[in-house]
Amino acid sequence: MNSSALESFLAANRxxxxxxxxxxxxxxxxxxxxxxxxxxGAIFGTIGGGALEYMVIDHARRLIAEGRAEEAMxxxxxxxIGQCCGGRVNVGLRYADAAIRRELAGRVATEENAEPHVxxxxxxxxxxxxxxxxxxxxVRSEVIDTRQxxxxxxxxxxxxxxxxxxxxxxxxxxxxxxxVIMTHDHALDFLIAFEALGRADCAYVGMVGxxxxxxxxxxxxxxQGGKREALERLVLPIGAQGLGxxxxxxxxxxxxxxxxxxxxxxxxxxxxxxTPMTRGVTSGx
Length: 285
Prior knowledge:
Blueprint: H1 3-12, E1 17-25, E2 35-38, E3 42-45, H2 50-66, E4 70-76, E5 88-95, H3 98-114, E6 117-121, H4 125-134, E7 140-145, H5 148-151, E8 160-162, H6 166-172, E9 178-181, H7 186-197, E10 204-207, H8 211-223, H9 228-231, E11 234-235, H10 248-269, E12 281-283
Parallel strand pairs: 6-7, 6-9, 7-8, 9-10, 10-11
Antiparallel strand pairs: 1-2, 1-5, 2-3, 3-12, 4-5
Helix pairs in contact: 1-3, 4-10, 6-7
């Protein structure tokens, strides 16, 4: 969830009801702790969509209209409401006064700070497409390149850095980071990948290229003293999935899926579960 988007929503909506999944039993479209905010003319976030969400929105707007501050809902997610999840949820609705707004802002900031880092090395066609895909996902992505003219082509709002030695970014990255390597220079790709594979604490190391490039890198990596077990962690080519599609947007979306699977697997192994939250604001519903 984006802190600035939340701040903008709250600034634009005086009367807001915070709707949170307080308890989830059985199957549910979202996890316990997920929340959305409902104003009379706009929605921030989602608790899963469908009949449940429409019902909660109606209740929230009724609270605003009637000047009431709180309500609890116990909703079966079955034929009774036209939903087929099969579980049951308790939803807490609270008027978002100043204290609750501060609480929610703190939660979002904490969640945002805990998002894993994804470093995209290379601002070429595929790098720019991947950066856009990552910008809507719960990660902190950044594009790294030596060429300002390529960085200037990134979509607005995409974080980037121009650095002379991209491999140094790998050394300084926090644990659990993902590294996606697609620069304009194979030798630079190799240097960055060597640094990344030297770290046992990263979530993903991927490089754009072919089977031939993988074979050349593997030979060079082992000659430089790299460990064979580390080499096995390298995803090359990225976004292949057996499709063989070389269009930048297709490679980007498949690579983004690969990255999220690897990050999710690492978080599951470490026993950490992120509270699902959205990034967006929608008008009406």
